[in-house]
Batch of 4 targets.
Target 1
Amino acid sequence: MPDEEQYPPTVEADEPTRKLGSKEGLPQSVPGFRLLQKLGAGGMGEVFEAEQLEPVRRKVALKLIKRGMESKEVLARFDSERQALALMSHPNIAQVYDAGVTEDGRPYFVMEFVHGVSVTEYCDTHRLDTSERLGLFLQICDGVQHAHQKGVIHRDLKPSNVLVTIRDDQPVPKIIDFGVAKATAQRLTERTVFTELGAIIGTPEYMSPEQAEMTGLDVDTRSDVYSLGVMLYELLSGAQPFDATELRRAGFDEIRRRIREEDPPRPSTRVTKMGDESGVVAKKRRTDPAFLARALRGDLDWITMKALEKDRTRRYGSPAELAADIGRHLRHVPVAAGPPSTIYRAQKFVRRHRLGVIAGSMVVVALVLGILGTTLGLLRAVRAERAARAQAETARQVSDFLEGLFEISDPNESKGNTITAREILDEGAARIRRELGGQLRVQARLMHTIGKVYNSLGLYEQSRSLLQESLSTRAELLDREDPEVLENMSSLANVLSHLGEYEASTDLHQRALAIREKTLGPDDLNVASSLHHLAAVQLQLGDYEQAETLYERALAIRERALGPEDPRTLDTMNSLATVYKVRADYDNAKAFYERVLDVRKRTLARDDPALATTLQHLASLLGTMGDYEGAQPLYERSLAIRERAFGPDHPRVADIVQDLAANHHELGDFAAARSLYERAVSIYESSLGPDHPDVAVTLGNLGVLLMDLSEHQSARPVFERALEIREKTLGPDHPDVAVVLENLGLLLRILGEYERAKPPLERAVAINRRAFDSEHPATAGSLNQLAIVFDLSGQPDAARPLFEEALTIREKHFGPDHPEVASSVMNLGYFLMRNGDLESARPLFERVVETREKVLGPEHPWLATVLDNLGALLTEVGEYEEARPLLERALAIQEKAFGDRHRAVAATLHNLAELDCRTGNYKEAEPLYRRALEIRQDQLGVDHPMAAETLEAYAELLRDTGREADARALEDRAANRQASTSDETSG
């Protein structure tokens, strides 16, 4: 569950009214229209969102000339725009509806209201890839072509004048603002529009060279083609041909000179020279910088640069010609802009007729090889080749023998013999260094193999040492592009990721990926492997969009090359499902997990460990979705498979035991959870050693359970040991160390030791900021814990910015509706309630109710949590009728999810009893308090603060109803139970 904290529930008020826009400066009256808000303003006019009242009611955009702008030129330009729009009727051009004059004499015209954003913003926000961007651009070309056919040149085409709106779930670009349009076939207005000498008409970044001349006499439809070329350049590369900041810093004459004389770099070149920014640009196109540059190189470079020709006679003659060339590119036929060479046309022919060319090429290659073989001295080559093969075969046999010996320690192969295998492994590593110094290539290969096995055992430092040594040797012996070197780089990168060295891991994976793409092509299976591993690191770093993009690319390659049921394809599909799960896209995650499970059920033996893994992942997802009962049999089946495959004491068995314990923990079955956690610790210690990181993970979970059982003094040494293991094995600055520090801080906070809780939590924040960045979700979690301690220690001014920073981080990473965002909203709400700002707290709870119901469904336990607390809040402010259905609904959800003996059930029973007491329904309240008290005392202990809270409230009810003796008897029973428990503990 997210790190939601429910420290004392409180209250809040109505949601503040949201302003839709400014209404300042609205004209007093525009006949037949009601102005709603100002949308924007240009040089000559203001645009308002308005409602047309007759003859039809509809939302429109009303453009009104600015006050004081009634010059002859402005009036002419304003009328020109109105008439230009009136001439045209096209789905990609905003339509004009009406025109008139306001009561104070200001001309206006009414046009279609386009509710959208600029085309560049839409493409970047929705992460459209290159082909999708080209599809939108073709529609824009079609709209401009229509304008030209009507005799109108726009003269100010730019992204902000092309808004994308949604029609029937499809994006539709709409061209607006023909304020500087020019007529070619007819006069647009009786007023003549004169271009003022020295005044630029248009926007410099998108202006054609002939517009920059500013004579106004030599501008034709090809000027709009140039502007379209600038837009295309920006859509593809994420930058303009000329840097806008530098251009506008230049003087007037310098701006004109650059536009007329300087040639910008090709789009692909611009991408490669962006540095770190190229990663951001590529991410917005669902790819990476190297792949984007390759996609632009060739056709798209040529098309864009032809549209940007300084000499308009060499430019495309119309938007239709530009669109036609883009269409050719998308169909993989030669483009008009490309060099008409034989090689280029042959490449296009191959892409269209791949199978036929491959078949023909095989025949040609066979003939050529035959001729070469005879002319180069076949006999001498064969003798040399035989000698090389003999030497390689000897090395292979030695290597394979030793690999077979050592790989029995891999958890996937050893079937429970890990201890013996570890001993063999350590001895083997020493022998390789000792005995194979004269056979460096064989030595490097074996070091690589053993390094991977150490990694699989979680022995990361041993793995790193061998893999670094192996890579160093191979880099000296082999070419940097050799497959063995690249495989070694990838293996080392995986180990560095486990050690928390994410930057170094990313660098190695990216280097391997770039070389593989260059030497093998973008669709090679080794490329897919690099993409898959790089995605895993990005997932650790919290860059979920990039992880999703990389996994999607890897999946596409593996599905094409291997088919949808190959184990490697399924591995990537499974990983992609995990990304969906993290991003709360539960429907997609479940669909992918179930698809993998279906294939593995059909293709694997019933006891195959891979089947157990998929069952485990699907069970984890169901738990996240609140279906703990549904997760239980999946975990149990997964455990049974692994026990049969590996034996009962294997670390892979402990993995499932631990997950099953966590599920029991969520269900409130603390006894079963404790037994399972302890079993997992025992397995890990006996098989992997007492200082293995997996031991620390389970100890951390056990410590949290002990806190829930109020065994706080027992939890402390458990957390301290987990911290010691992680610092020893992973180093003091690993993010896994921060997890234990957060748990330790939580324990100290529960014990009321606020000042002692601050240092571990502050250290956790610092570790996460160093390991990831200041905006990683892990940083948000540690900020939240630290904020609570500051609040409880009487420092609300220090707490509030930490709560708000945590919320901002999560909203940026996950969007507004993610469960972790909802948790941060809840945290902030609790803080506000504790500090008396009930009015501000209420809309936060209401927001959480809305988002959790939408994302998690109407019966998720996390929804019940916020319903319970909102109900308690409403009770506190006296809104009893509104509070009751919320509390009753929360109780029903919790009883269905957890049964009737869960601590969450007790919390809601307590709040319902409080509501009944407030309304004088003491008879109904008494059994609710009694039941809540029984659950809390049994589940949490007699001396737990929550049990004491319910005891005090129940006793007060008894006294208020004149039953003093019953109240004293209740308190005496509790005291006796507490004393008995203390005696048992001390004994």
Target 2
Amino acid sequence: MINWIKWSVAGVVSIAVLAVGAVYFSLWLSLPTLDGNSTTKNVDAHTQLSRDAMGHAVINAATKLDAAYALGFAHGQDRLFQMDLLRRSASGALSEWVGDIALKRDKSIRFHQFSTRAKQVFEALPLSQKQLLIRYSHGVNAAIDEYNILPFEYIVTGVTLNRWKPTDSILVAYSMYLDLQGSQLNLDLARTLLKEKYGEAIYDFVTQPSNYQAALDGSVIESQVKDIPEYPSSLSSLDNVAYNATELPDIGSNNWAVSGNLTPTGHGMLANDMHLGLRVPNIWYRAQLNYKENNEAVSMTGVSLPGLPSIVVGTNDHVAWGFTNANLDNVDWIALPENAPTTTEEEHIVSSNGTSHVYPIVKSEYGPVREINGKRYALNWVAHHPFAVNLSIVNMGTVKSVEDGITVGRTIAIPTQNMVMADKEGSIAWLPAGAVMHRELASNVALSEQQFTAQGVKPAENLPLVLNPDNDRIWTANSRVIAANDLAKLGNGGYALGARGLQIKARLFEKAQFTENDFYAIQLDNNAQFLSPWHTLLTGILASQRIEFKPDISYLNTWGACACESSVGYTLVKAFRRHVIQNLFGQILSEIDNDGVDSRGLLRGIEPAVWQLIHTQPTSWLQQQHSSFDALLVDAYRSAKNELLDRFSPVDGDLTELAWGKVNALSVEHPFSSQIPLVGDALNMRTVDGFGDTYMPAVQAPKFGASQRFFARPGKLDEAVLTLPSGQSGHPLSDYFIKGFEDYATHGATPLLPGAIEHTRQWYPNPKPTR
């Protein structure tokens, strides 16, 4: 019997070992070939793709088209799954991969019919840009053709890989529209419902401008709210409601620049860290493109987006450029009259089990239609128009000055960005780059047909510009950058509160000269300036009940005024603020959510209203269970602390477990890691103690933060830095899967420029046939 058990166990172990071995062998077979020579009809001259010890893709080509082919090949080798995920996400085809769990999301994406729009955009592109996308797709498909076994994601899901088409790159651009402007779609509807449900006074109160303003021209928009309105009478019960929503992340980033007057070499200097969701592989891919254009050598180094044949943020050693989400208003909802004509089209969504789901889309002459509370609203979004996407960003390779960059920036069609530049001669500039809707008068709520038709649909012209300001400094951080006078036309598409921008601005005026290390220090600034008033408030209210909260007060007194790894006090203050807001506004915002509109966008600007309530303490805003505002605040703190302990120390109730580094631990994971037993965790980067938070330059949440850290002085690129939160390759057995992450985790400085070459692929054009 014992022998039988031994042999059975040995057999199971052997089978497991063989299974693991088979998986490993399959993964090994799917590794790309990094060295070798080939001939192809898809390059016009000798073309070379090399990689250094980090996997940095270095491309040397005769022309921009040949460089696009090699970049497509590199993306196809290292990031095929990511590219496929982006095009599926933008076309509403994730259900085919992961099943009905993605059906709701796919329906929300099919509402925009981006697959159809991508074809329209491609047809409208100039011939040179069409050729670039075609050549790029040839490179991607050449990489696909070389796979002996497809990447493991395809084995896990069993989904078929389709070849890359030029229009798929347009879908990748649309995926960025969804990331960067998707929240605007709900924000305008949430503001509309807030106004319709609760009236003008509540609307003005909740959406008033804050004290945190950092426009480049110094202009300030004053709040017109003098008196706090009564709590909405339509909400009959003031009982506390379960509202657990928190602010949406400030997608879009920091960037800043100083002129040559403030650097030791006289070159302008740029910083850029784009804030996005963090995952494995990282959204960006480091590359250097070297080719000739108009008989001049071009060399661009920076980050590319797999799926597109360009450097998105980087430098050509003459000019460095970077982006943050501008949050100009590019969305209109049009309230349709009852007799407005509509048509219905059907979209068919196929699930992973082969089931086809029919999704009807109602359309009007203004755009697709949503029905909310019996009213119909048509959507006009800049992303729905052919002028929303082009490849003009590739022309940054040839710019020689900030002035040249401005000319190119005016032609770029991407989700509207704050484009900041610095050049070798010391100049700096800011402008809104990307597709911007023309407005005679921007609106934060739904428009009537008459209001919408009066302004028409076309791209905006004569956008503002800041070139070489007298103070030698430029900064943007997703809050309002434009002058107050420009707000009427350019609007508010969901600006960040502005605390982060003010903190960056203050840091830039602390010194008279800067290096890359100084810029990195600003990017890592996790000082809790924004939460300091909340800390003072919390410490004060707990002091009146010192016996109950003696340990809490001790942690608050040693909080360090920073989002630091060891700070328990920071965690307590952060959670306290959230619960106060939820207590005061939860019922109002829940009613908007109940109507099918996401209310979270309204939380971004709610800070001034909250403090007005705290300072004036109107009794109509108290829940029935609270006799005073002090009682409300203490109860909010108790709830916040108990919620934290239930999550992070449910057995011991130990406050030390609430250190911010643990509560906000950085976890950069592969989307499929949780679905693969035993070995799935090997697909993730190691967990790192949290550092940073919202409302400060060092933005970081568990799965969100700086998707790159870039600091460069054109003309002095040996000091430039480009740090990314995961490796170049998405293949778990690749030497380049993890490399680079440790610099990110430890705040190290990875050089921008590539190092010694380790691998090289070369292509030669097919020999011409002899006659």
Target 3
Amino acid sequence: MSEKSPLFLAHVKQESDGQWIPHPLEDNLHGVAALAESFAAAFGAGDWARLAGLWHDLGKYRGAFQRYIRGASGYEAHIETAPGKVDHSTAGALYAMERMKGLGRILAYLIAGHHAGLPDWQSAEAPVSSLANRLQQADLLTDTLAAALPADILDAPLPTSNPGGERAHALWIRLLFSCLVDADFLDTEQFMNPDKTAQRGRYPTLAELGPRFETYMAALSAKANDTSVNRMRAQVLERCRKAAEQSPGLFSLTVPTGGGKTLASMAFALGHARQHGKRRILYVIPYTSIIEQTADVFREVFGEDAVLEHHSNFEGEQETPRSRLACENWDAPLIVTTSVQFFESLFANRTSRTRKLHNIVDSVVILDEAQLLPPNFLTPILGAMRELSRYYGVSFVLCTATQPDLSSRHSLDFSLKGLDDVREIVGDAAAVHELYDGLRRVQLTFPPDLLTPVTWQALAAELETHPRVLCIVDRRDDARLLHSLLPSATVHLSGLMCGQHRSDVIADIKRRLRNTNVPLRVVSTQLVEAGVDLDFPVVYRALAGLDSIAQAAGRCNREGRCFNLGQVVVFVPPTQPPAGHLRQACQAGRQVLQRRPADPLAPALFTEYFQILYWQKGTEQLDSQGIVPLLKNNQRLEFSFRTAAERFQLIPETQAPVIVRYGNNEWLLNQLAHSDQLERKLLRQLQRYVVNIPRRVHQRLLAEGAIAERQPGVYVQITPQLYDPVVGLRVEQAIHYGSDDLMI
């Protein structure tokens, strides 16, 4: 920058000695451009990202902004969505349109949205914030160009790479947006908080994780007993190692529950990443309730420094400096996250959710319990997976004991464009069946009449005849009622218990299971069916989808210790599953079982089961929120990013979190009460004590003073009796459950 040029500020900060330090705007723009270019180079769009970085904050050259920043905190000024903030993003969008005409809309989306989120082109719900409306504000560009802008920024070369081709343009734009906002965040952080920047990237590389994994697996093998189960697990592991050499793309790993999928899939991912130069591994888990367990397994394997665990119950609806600081950008080599985080981020428009997306490029993504992909969003999810695999170097592994049929299906009344080139890691259908036979450890029985329910009292009496038994139901209130009918020593598990409470109870169950002389009866919701390694001789399961029944069977005779086969008993409960997916899955399961198959858990039956499940929903219900039309390619580049993000909610916003009082967490609650700002570490610690309840119940408890808001959006239990040390949050007296309130 010339010494005679006026000093235009991007940010300012105050040092401990009171001195104000400026962040020159020209330095900021070049810094963001260089970072964004390096990120987007991974998918051949570095020239587009560089130009977005150079122009993203042109509006800060306006006199109005320069006057504003000299009277405000630089970092707070960076978020322009708060009342009174100066618009400094529209000018760059307008300039992109002036320089690039029609293709300028690509950069206009990125630049106009890099604080408030990717906008809709047109929006009936929020017309003022639509991109079309913002591009009408020509005076913002006129005011900006009145300043002495550097020529190398204004006259920067235009992109030469193909902006779309056969790719889905909306996903390509969101990935570019991710590059821009992550670069913007990191460059700002480098100026505002260099100590924090210095802490980034301190992870071992994937190359370093490989030897740690081999050392762990060698020790595990050395102490493993020579049993048929362990021999089959070793066989699965070896097949995963060999398959890792295959070319990148779409894979399935179909192994019966208890076959060692978690570590075997990681062996594949590490080998595949090494063979093909993949940058990171993402392990995606369906339930928050089990993510801690899987992350703990990987920490034991790789060390505390290797695993980034990302899930949150505290993400706010509005962009704030705190929400941007609290989010992750997935720059670690091994990330363990939830299906909600992964898939909602793919369709998000907010900066805090999208800045991680570019780090998915050239990765291995393991989708654990793939049968739990949400059917109502199946079409957009499969579309995104196809795009990421074909154009962005992502290898997916669909990992489950009950592999869903996701292939394309077309008929007169049903159409699904699915995944048609999936390679099974363990081999062909015969190899999958061989594994199933080798790991067969249970015998399944179900009543002759699949329509007539048993009473809770009769079921409780039957459960009492078994000294060690697990009973799984679909509804929280069913679990609590059945538990109340059994002896007082019976254990209860449900989603009305916080994560730490569930972990403590599961650890106690495992301890008691190791002592074969101790009676143990457990009543649980389906939260134990994915990733919770329990081993009971007898398991009862309320009639459900065939995949859920198979998952329940995976908690029975898991290690093959029973003299004979373990016993899995399916019963018809007095209540129906909650309306929606669980009820539809139950109906599909009933339809398959009514034909009395010789082996109800045979792998071939799951293809039929999932076809029935998807077909009965119909084509429209596989994209129930109409996401695909909002993001469909069109010559005018008119997309509805904001609306798509609002509609793509895997967990409907009918639930709200409460931090409960459990164990010794009083000191954490005291920290929360006396903190001016929420630190990420404190949020992470508090997540272990969160229970989600229906919003209407949440509002009632707030009105009654049973809970209170300690920080914006963070609610804490006040009434001591509200949380029971056995069954969790006790709000049943006033809850009239809705259809979506009863799961897990």
Target 4
Amino acid sequence: MLTNYFKIAWRNLMKNKTFSLINIAGLSIGMAACLLILQYVSFELSYDQFNNNAKDVYRVYNDRYQNGKLIQHTTKTYSAISKAMHNDYPEVINYTRVIKNVAILSYNTKKIGGQSLLWVENSFLAMFSYPLLAGNSATALKEPNTTVISETLAKKIFGVNDHLESLIGKVIIYRGRQPLEITGIFRDVPKNSHLQFDLLCSYISLSWITTDNEFTYAGMQNYLQLKPGTNYQALEAKFSPFSKKYFQENKISGSVEKFYLQPLSKAHLYSDFEDEIGKTGSAVAVWGLLIIAMLVIFIAWINYIIMTSAKSLERAKEVGIRKVAGATRQQLIGQFLSESLIINVVALLIALFLVNLVQDGFNRLVQQQLSLSYLFEKGLNGYSIILSLIAFIVAGIFLSGFYPSFVLSSFKPMLVLKGKYTRSNKGILLRKVLVIGQFAVTITLVIGSFVVYRQLKFVNEQNLGMDISQMLIVKAPALTQWDTTFMRKESSFINEIMELPGVLGAAHSGSLPGDELWTNSDVKRTDAPVEAHFTVQHTGVGPGFMDLYQMNLVAGREFTSTDYNDDRNKLHSIVLNEAAMKLLGFKSANDAVGKQINTAGRNYDVIGVVADFHQRSLHYPIEPTMFFPHFSMMDYFSVKVDPHDLSSKIAVIKKKYDSFFPGNLFDYYFLDEKFNEQYGNDKLFGKVFSIFSGFAILIASLGLFGLSLFATAQRIKEIGIRKVLGASVPNILMMLSKDFIKLVIIAFFIALPVAWFVMNNWLQNFAYRININLWIFVAAGFLALFLAVATISFQTIKTAVANPAKILRTE
């Protein structure tokens, strides 16, 4: 019986090659798009799932309020928090504190820079699943000045892959000063870990963190492990008295402190925090792309339903004869479902081929090493992804094949064989509804693509309030020992490279545009009441920094060499931005200049006010900022260079750097590239959104082409007669197109509010954003209408220009 079903199904597919090809092409493109997006989505959702304790590990985040206003929303909080929570709440069974640094390591004469280092407690290795290949995880980080390093770092330093045990006990040097004994080697951190690091060092080594500053130093991440089955939200509810106990409202830190827990599984995608410890993803982008994947395959299956049900009239006589010959309705449904199965399976095989064909390009697009095997082996909780996909495909096959099978098997044999069968109005109405739904989805995706493109164009072209183009950043000479000559050495280095050909300017600073700045929560005017204090972010800069970055000085002056001193206690000058000036209550920039503010218990003279600028991406509002005169071992050198022959200019700058700071690594990058990395998730979302929206448009156009092909074939005799009676080609084209055009117009008006709602919500992720103008909707509507007309016209014009005599003779 089954063999017979498939034989007949195959013959029918071969008989109607054009319609079969359209169905298979649409389904295969839809399935391929779906499989590609599922790879990316499954990877993003798999972050930190490899940890055995993933369900029980949480990180503490901290909201700080001042004068009733939220001033900070961060995962970087006080060093004593996790320890105190462990002591106060029996639900907390383990904890670790984490501080991230970038390490420069030395071993004999070899130096390696740019390594990601985490200072952690020994409990870290018990809470997280980063297995050691050599060493004892129970004791590896218990002692001061101990470290465990990755396989890759071990190879970089020692050049070996095997006999890892022999590396235990060897000593490497951190930043040219601190010896670290290797007590373990761990397997390289998985790519889907929100914590990325090359080595772990014992937290106890940080002697500068003492009991005196545990509730005042807010510079680390705190992770808790709860008892299995603990309701973390119930534990969160107990944190209000915890805050009052340790912070006495705002008496300790100057802010009202509130603490919450974030599940480890949400650390990658659901992070809108300041001071993130690693690169984060976007839940909006991930779920948005997953919805697009579902919509694309949905459009493909709708195509199949429309095309198959439209051809029902042609197969009515076949059904009538089969019923007269004794076929039951169940047998006929089985027959037509087998056709659906063949088409879907063939489409799936082609889709798998297409995925393999474009896999490398897709991996470059999403900047990950993904594959179908990854999807099947390591997707959402292992094998459940395979079962989900099988269930999804089976459901799609059943749903897309069920309605056509139901319609075809319902024909009454007597009416069909007598030639009295006519098309069902219900069937025509359903096809119209499906076409409207299909194009409503397509138009929504087109509008979304326009909005995403315009917003990304807007952020790229936005005036930042400073110029970061052609800014070469050279990292600090971290291996040079600090002494009283360092400040003069740094100034001399800057002065000499400014004399080099092609160097347009240079300055140093403690942070750069794009960095998250430190904040002071006790800033106040000296001429205002003591209780009127505010939170302002701050950074340190060298002479000429503001001029180098072409920041607009609206009042006063910027720093000169006289504002700097080896003795930090003698520094007294400060520059504000306009946002800080307004926050502190000054009437104008000129009013602020010459006044004093107090922070950290010291008075500073306001010597200047600069116009507001975007320190970070346009996701964030402009923050109140103050600048201090600054010299430090942690400084960056900003060098403005002429864009011509960059390699030779960089080589000359390196030579100067090596002469001033021998033994240091010359590490550099261009600031605009680094700054634009903040939009990495948005750009990826925009590219993938546009590409797969294009697939949706292609599939919808294929379906419309097939439907117009069928409609034209059904009216071929009418077209011949109309031509004989004098109808022109445009008349016939309008006659055949108007019904489809009406459907597209209806779809457009359905798509308008949906697209506006979805994209307006997406734009809320940006503090500075475009307005969704009417022309975007109009352009999308005209594009959809143009594509529909172009698709329909291909076949209708061909038929309309044919010789009517030939048409009527054939009919």
